[in-house]
Structure formats: C-alpha cells, structure tokens
C-alpha cells in the first residue's frame, strides 16, 4: 500500500483499499490529507452526495470500519470533480492515486478504514 502516514504516527489514519490476491492494495494516509481532499468536494444542487454526504455527516467509516464504499462509480465521479489546483502537492498526489484505485477496481469492493 502507498503510505502517506509516515511522520503523522499517533494521529488518525485513513486507509482506502481493495483486496488483490488476499492482500490489501491502496493508500494509507494521515486523515488531514483526506480532510483536505473531502473539503474540496462541492455540493450538488446545495446537497451533499456520495462520499461527501457520509463525510459531512460523520457517518460511514466513522461508525463502522472498515466500511465498504456503496457506489464506486459515484465516488469516482465525485473525486474527479475536485479542482486539484485547490490542493497542496501531497493531497493532489493522493487524490490521483485514489482516482486510479477506483478506476482500476470499479467492480471490486473498495473499503475506507478509519483508525
């Protein structure tokens, strides 16, 4: 798994992953990076949708971890809609890897784990 958590040990961690040959494949990150990415998502018709809905209501992976993303295509569309110029370099890099993970595993279960 790609690791963006080093240096933030002791702080909350977010992992986004799937399984390939019984091995986790994805991204480990400090939750601050994930917060920056999710904060860049804009509401649709003044309402939160997809992962932004769960993020803004503190549901989903906050309640149950690991938590399966309910609709990979909607999540992908939401991440692709983010204006990358609003993010710092590391957050842009993580966002790119999240998008790749969702694209390459659209038919697989993808999980978010909050630790």
Gyration radius from CA atoms, angstroms: 13 Å
Poorly predicted regions? none
What is the helix fraction of residues, given as a range? 25-40%
* Largest pleated sheet: 5 strands, mixed
The residue-averaged pLDDT reads 93
In what order do the strands lie side by side in the largest sheet?
A: 1-3-2-5-4
Element-level helix/strand string: EEEHHEHHE
How big a fraction of the residues is strand?
A: 15-25%
What structural class do helix, strand and pairing data support? alpha+beta
Shape: globular
Number of alpha- plus pi-helical segments: 4
How would you describe this protein?
By secondary structure, this protein is of the alpha+beta class. It is 36% helix and 22% strand. The protein has helices spanning 31-39, 50-56, 72-80, 89-104; strands at residues 2-4, 13-20, 23-30, 67-68, 111-114. A five-stranded mixed sheet has the order 1-3-2-5-4. β2 (13-20) and β3 (23-30) form a beta hairpin.
Keywords:
115 residues, alpha+beta, five-stranded mixed sheet, 4 helices, 36% helix
Short structural description:
Helix content is 36%, strand content 22%.
Write the layout of secondary structure elements.
Elements: E1 2-4, E2 13-20, E3 23-30, H1 31-39, H2 50-56, E4 67-68, H3 72-80, H4 89-104, E5 111-114
Parallel strand pairs: 1-3
Antiparallel strand pairs: 2-3, 2-5, 4-5
């Amino acid at each position: 798994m790609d690791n963006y958590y080093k240096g933030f040990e002791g702080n909350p961690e977010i992992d986004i992953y799937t399984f390939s040959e019984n091995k986790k494949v994805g991204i480990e990150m400090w939750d601050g990076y994930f917060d920056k990415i999710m904060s860049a998502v804009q509401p649709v018709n003044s309402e939160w949708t997809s992962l932004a809905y769960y993020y803004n209501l503190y549901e989903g992976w906050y309640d149950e971890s690991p938590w399966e993303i309910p609709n990979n295509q909607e999540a992908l569309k939401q991440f692709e809609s983010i204006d990358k110029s609003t993010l710092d370099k590391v957050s842009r890099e993580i966002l790119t890897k999240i998008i790749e993970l969702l694209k390459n595993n659209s038919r697989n279960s993808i999980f978010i784990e909050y630790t």
